TrEMBL record:
This is Uncharacterized protein. The chain crosses the membrane at residues 14-35. It comes from the Bacteria. It comes from Sphingobacterium nematocida. Keywords: Membrane, Transmembrane, Transmembrane helix.
Amino acid sequence: MGEESNVKRRDSELMFKILFGILGSFNSLLVSLWFRVEENANLCGLYILY
């Protein structure tokens, strides 16, 4: 019985790791996308609006 709960806990830990991995990569993607937008805005001279 103790063995089964151990497996369940390991599965949930794996799920959390996968979830956080996806969130982390998505977050870095958003950040790089934002920096690209900022760069383009500066190139277009839109920084005057800031």
